[in-house]
Amino acid sequence: MLELLRIRNLALIEDMALDFADGMNVLTGETGAGKSFILKALGFLLGERLSPDMVRPGSDRAQVEAVFAGRDGEELILRRELLASGRSRFYVNDSPKPQERARELRDSLVAYTSQHGQQKLLQPAYQNQIMEQTLDCPELLQERDSLKAQLEAKLEERKAIEAKQASLAEMRDLLEMRQAEIDKVKPQENEDEELEALRVRARQAQEAARDYDQALGYLYGDADAPGLLDMARTFHRHLERMAKADAGLEPSCEATGSFVQELQHLAGRLRQPPVMEDMPPDMDAVEERLFELSQLKRRLRRTLPQILALKDEIAEKISFLDVCALDIKRLQREEEALAERLKACLAKLLPRRRACCDAFAARLEAQLRGLGFSEAVRVIPRYAPSEVWPGIADEKVRLLWAPNPGQPPQPLDRIASGGELSRFLLALAGVMPSAEEATFIFDEVDSGVGGLTLNRLADRLEQLAASRQMLLVTHWPQIASRAGRHFQITKTVREGKTFTQCRPLNEQERHGELARMAGGGAQGEAMADALDGARQAPACGSDAPAAPADQLQPEPSASGHAGKDAAPAKAAPAEEAKASAKSPSRIRSGDGARKGAQHAGACARSHREGEATGGGEGGPAHAESPAGSAQEPAEEPLQR
User: CB-based contacts of 335: which residues, under 8 Å, 6+ apart?
Assistant: First the structure.
């Protein structure tokens, strides 16, 4: 059960708190005040999306919080924030959770029916979805969906293999030619770089050997000119002769002798140049290999690493062509096995589905009869074959109905009016499987309904609210008067800013709101008095009859709701007689209606006067206005 809902900084709502009760909780207000948006905020809390422009201007985030209570008394506190940047965060009992968790909780917490549901109800796919939810063996649906998904995956895999096989089969000759060309050269990883480095070192060694030979030539000279060593020896001998006559030349003579000895030692070293240890014996072979590799790279227009990758790719493709036929056969066998399992699953599913759908249609017919449809109303599931796999057919279920006797069954979108769709949705809500503790949420489910039928719809809503909590948005006073707790939604403007506010109504305020909903003025007061009297007459201790609401009911306006200038509804004689036969308390005469209205009004006025003096029962003092009220600060966590 939804106990508390708080909305902050969302669109026109600054800070609003609603404390809900068991049974029927009704939200009323003028068109455009924001009633449906409150339900939209609850939908956002439970996983629906809102655009970032829904954050109230001047705020960095919007926040929706709710307290749900289970039958065991355990509370579940949910909070979701919408940041102005567009991101949202979801919390369960103040613990952050993924957004998917909100959608998982939705079905167990609320059962939502709105005006938009009428349009969805006309879609055959949605009707089929509804009928599948009635199946008493959901494991068969899960098995069917799983087998279909596996079959589709196998089919996609096989199609991908076949497409690849077709494209490669045309290229096989080219692939084999490229493979032979690469295998002929047999390139190795980094081979070209290593050979290039070896060639560079070999050239460096050759240049060094030429330098050593040239240095020896400078030392020893040739036939045409003496070398440096011979000239140094000759010069040293000449200087020795001069030193005999001039003692001062002896140091120079000794230095010249040392120079000659150094040249002789250097000549020995130059005769033994360094030799490369890894030098290949045949550099011509290196050059030929480099040329062969360069030719391969030029023909394939790839580097050596790319050629090696191409070699592996070609080998993989040729291998694929060799084995793909086996893979295709294997996948075909797996598809056949899955198809047989799917066929067996559907053989069990189809009769079970038909039985469940027929039983569901019978329950739906009973609900529709209670909402003012003919006793002969019929809802007929139509089963259309739908091939889910070659040679295997499932069934799609579409709802046909005949609301009147002698009328052939037709799809809903062909003959259902807006009011009939509204009642159809309400009937569905009464028979659709849902969590026992889920709160019913009805957003103007009474759209397009009026006259005596409106009372039947109100009765059904009251019956549902007797066993389940209900949140209801309505424009009809006949329905709002049945609520255990009544909230009024208003829109105000202060200091150039617009605010949507919500407040619970006490009995006196409730009477005024019912009168407004009935069109205001004397007509509205008469309707409000009659509706209040219908609720309070037993407490007055009088046997005087209460005026039936349908005697004072205004005709719906163009929008489908009570208008200010609307005239009282006039029931058809047949409907009046039928209703009177079913309900002995229904007053058929105008005098009786007036007497009942006078008695009901007197009782209601007496109750309100007692309330005004302090003896009345007020609603919860939970209000929500930006002007400030006795509620907790906006930044405090949600508390009950």
Answer: 151, 154, 155, 158
pLDDT at 376: 87
pLDDT of residue 227: 86
Q: Give the per-residue pLDDT at 622.
A: 41
* Neighbour count for residue 12 (Cβ, 10 Å): 17
CA-to-CA separations, 80 to 10, 276, 346, 479, in angstroms, rounded: 12, 77, 42, 32
- Residues in CB range of 3: below 8 A, 6 or more apart: 19, 20, 67, 68, 69, 75, 640
Structural tokens at position 133: 């939810």
In our burial notation (b when 16+ CB lie closer than 10 A, e otherwise), range 258-274 reads eebeebeeebeebeeee
Residue type, 222: D
What confidence score (pLDDT) does residue 115 get? Answer: 61
According to the model, what pLDDT value does residue 633 have?
39
> CA 438 to CA 429: how far, in whole Å?
12
Answer for the pair 499, 12: CB distance below 8 angstroms, yes or no.
yes
Do residues 514 and 486 touch, judged by C-beta distance below 8 A? no
- CB 99 within 8 Å of CB 81: no
- Which two three-digit tokens encode residue 426? 């309400």
Which tokens sit at 231?
């000239």
Could you tell me the two tokens for 369? Answer: 């009869």
- Exposure of 541 by Cβ count < 10 A (0-12 exposed, 13-18 middle, 19+ buried)? exposed
The pLDDT of residue 516: 92
Segment (H or E) for 472: strand 470-473
- What are φ and ψ of residue 591, in 5° steps? -65, -45
| Nearest alpha carbon to residue 236 among 266, 219, 256 | 256
DSSP of 131-157: HHHT-S-HHHHHHHHHHHHHHHHHHHH
Please state whether beta strands 485-494 and 470-473 pair in parallel, antiparallel, or not at all (unpaired).
unpaired
| Other beta carbons less than 10 A from residue 299's beta carbon | 12
- CA-to-CA distance for 315 and 536, rounded, in angstroms? 91
3-state secondary structure of 126: helix
**Order of strands across the sheet with 485-494?**
110-113, 439-443, 470-473, 24-28, 485-494, 497-504
Between the CA of residue 177 and those of 6, 315, 330, what are the distances in Å? Answer: 75, 12, 30
Q: Is 563 helix (H, G, I), strand (E, B) or coil?
A: coil
Half-sphere exposure of 635 (CA within 13 A, CB side): 2
Query: How confident is the model at residue 217, as a pLDDT?
Result: 87
Task: Kindly list the distances between the CA atom of residue 9 and the CA atoms of 5, 63, 81, 83, 496, in Å, as whole numbers in the listed order.
Answer: 14, 7, 10, 11, 17
616 Rama class: left (phi>0) / alpha (psi -120 to 50) / beta: beta
Per the structure block, which two tokens stand in for 387?
């091939």
Residue 199: predicted pLDDT: 84
> pLDDT means per 10 residues in the chain (640 residues)?
92 92 92 86 90 90 91 87 91 91 87 69 86 89 94 94 86 85 88 84 83 87 83 89 87 90 88 74 81 89 90 87 88 94 95 93 89 87 93 93 85 76 81 75 80 84 87 90 92 89 91 91 88 66 43 40 38 38 35 44 50 41 38 42
CA–CA separation, 409 vs 370, rounded Å?
A: 20
* Helix, strand, coil share of the chain (percent; to 5): 55, 15, 30
- CA-to-CA dists, residue 107 to 76, 101, 435, 440, angstroms: 15, 11, 7, 11
